[in-house]
């Protein structure tokens, strides 16, 4: 019988570390999430980003007007943005490696993936991190409706799903500029229902999407415009979404909050999120009893994520479905560095070349390029998606090359087997490790093993 | 290895399209008896058929589109007096004139009303209607095709890239290939790895293939230039098709043009055009026996939206190319664009199941019987009359 502290560390966190004591009971595991709700130095917020974007626009204009020194200043600004982005990525790794439980940082990843945004340039790359700071972390233990409102109205989301280009056809702005093309864009409305709340299989129709798209008009992000809502872009009049009428005369952010409050506690949303959580944390094909329990907790508490976290930490299915999930590349890298005894400070001190090679590029070749999920539905969950031959080849490569590059002196492979996997190593792996030609090969066998790559 | 490319994202990202990232592209390859070749290109994101093959002869078009699909007066090339070809495909005009390019303007899968990319692509790749059980839908139609072929158990299907395309998922063996992960293993480490993966089927399969592929099955390929991944894929596919491979499938992302469609679709069409011409050039004489089908999960709204783009729709276009097709014409009827002709008042009405064309191609080129196609490969499909699409 696997002790609970190890079970929770493998299943809800990033595995074991020789320096960290994981929480020993479900209440402590759930309580540990609080640590991930606050920001760390180096975390990017949208308020900072807004200023950087305005600065970048000015530098770009100076460059177009060929002012002296403008080219250099513009380039320096770009480099600064790149550096901040890289720093934010390193910070994500460092926090995950340092978190004794790991559950909070795993939840950050899970919810950021639920509200997927992708980076396309310097600023949208940074926005993916700002969405996490502004909309995900503060709400990890709060009500889902609050997280959803913060995420849907976040500049990163408004940009990624084209909301900033959606204008009410009868809005003040459209009426004042009749010659300018302008009108609805359904993208955010569709994903808000299909991916972020009810789920694609739920009972809604095209009319609901179109009405929601009308209701969302006014939401837009432009760095020089304060806030994220401009009434002159909003479609006047009420809209009916899923049988409920919202808004009225002029349109306001309150109307949007009202529809999100309802979508966030809809029974279909409870079922959709319960299943998604069970799939991510427990099994690709999760037991229905667990999904039903989680959905029940969600419904009874009005979408209290703290209660969901506890229900997950208490789930007996953590033990009954042990190691049926495959660690995604980010998890693999964090778990690898943790088990090698690295701490966050060591990760923050890595030279940029090593960060690029052993973290960012390796993760990309394993199939998870940072901030570039394949679509708004985020990263795939199925083990088969991650256990491709070339994905595994890169994990084997990393297991062979990265440990020595990252920590210098390697641990004794036989001791590493225990510090890394506790008492869960398979007989075959325990048999194989002492037969490796070198400590490096022994360590690589452990990190490349199915035991380590599953959780 | 990747360098700064990670930070230099493809600018073809529009709305909710997937990145044209090299590690995101997938391809599948299968061998089959005979000399005929089939290439299936999945256009991910829902291509706007109305903008690619512009029905400028339909008098209702002009009222629906303000900045898009403006026909021959704005750079498109007239094809037959009714349809005009988007300027970004003009490199393909010689193929049209030679009868090696054609299209079906109003087709779709049976998927209706929800207009979700993910479900739509699943249906296109799984090739079954939603009324079937989920476990049947999970299987890809290429795989089911392989199972219909004599001696298929000795065949190998490769799937390239991170996520296996569903099109090849199933009982037939699939292998992955990538030019970017090489292993550096001592024989002893290889042996021990083989042993430790042995009891885990998923890892056993992946590791065996990885070692096998790395030890000589995959050719050395030059590093793809940024934005040229589609050419790398096309070259690799042609190389395989010149060998034992007879069926290849891969996807081109970037068709989800919710905003600023003119720029976005131009990039995607240019990639499609270059992909087809690259296949033609590299296949040489084998091009004459090749059928290329470019399919998308559904069409887009007939009306342009407020941000000079289009939203998710129903009916759309399928493109076919190759020396084996009877092109130079539009296949099937045109439903019209008048209010009463539209699906749900907003989308082009699909007049035929897109999978029927794939089925007829397999029937003609690989001798698969209609009953096997309608029963096993595309369960529940009604192939209908022969569209006589192939030479």
- Mean pLDDT across all amino acids of chain B: 79
Rg value of chain A: 24 Å
Oligomeric state of the chains?
heterodimer
Number of spatially distinct domains of chain B: 2
User: In the CATH scheme, what's the topology name of the largest domain in chain B?
Assistant: Alkaline Phosphatase, subunit A
Termini separation of chain B (Å)?
44 Å
CATH architectural arrangement of the largest domain in chain B:
3-Layer(aba) Sandwich
Percent range of helical residues of chain A: 55-70%
Question: How far do the termini of chain A sit from each other?
Answer: 16 Å
* Low-pLDDT residue intervals, each spanning 5 or more residues of chain A: none
For the largest beta-sheet of chain A, the strand count, sense and barrel status come to: 2 strands, antiparallel
Bin the strand percentage of chain A: under 5%
Give the helix proportion of chain B (percent range): 25-40%
Shape designation of chain A: globular
Q: What's the number of extended β-strand segments of chain B?
A: 12
> What is the chain-wise order of helices and strands of chain A?
HHHHHHHHHHHEEHHHHHHHHHHHHHH
Number of distinct beta strands of chain A: 2
Q: What general form of chain B does the structure show? A: globular
Give a short summary of the structure:
The complex is a heterodimer of chains A (455) and B (391). Chain A is an all-alpha fold. Helices cover 58% and strands 1% of the residues of chain A.
Your description of this structure?
The complex is a heterodimer of chains A (455) and B (391). Chain A is mainly α and 455 residues long. Chain A has helices at residues 4-12, 26-31, 46-64, 70-98, 103-114, 122-136, 144-152, 155-160, 172-176, 187-194, 206-216, 253-264, 267-281, 288-300, 305-313, 317-320, 329-339, 344-348, 352-365, 383-386, 389-407, 413-421, 427-432, 439-448, 450-453, and strands at 239-241, 244-246. Among the domains of chain A are: 158-264, no CATH class; 329-453, no CATH class. In chain A, 58% of the residues lie in helices and 1% in strands. In chain A, strand 1 (239-241) and strand 2 (244-246) form a beta hairpin. In chain A, helix 3 runs antiparallel to helix 6 and helix 19 (352-365) packs antiparallel against helix 21 (389-407). Chain A is globular and about 80 Å long. The two termini of chain A are 16 Å apart. The mean pLDDT of chain A is 94. By secondary structure, chain B is an alpha/beta fold. In chain B, 30% of the residues lie in helices and 15% in strands. Chain B is built from 12 helices and 12 strands. Chain B is globular and about 70 Å long. The chains are: A mainly alpha (455), B alpha/beta (391). At the A-B interface, helix 10, helix 19, helix 20, helix 21 and helix 23 of A face helix 4, helix 7 and helix 8 of B.
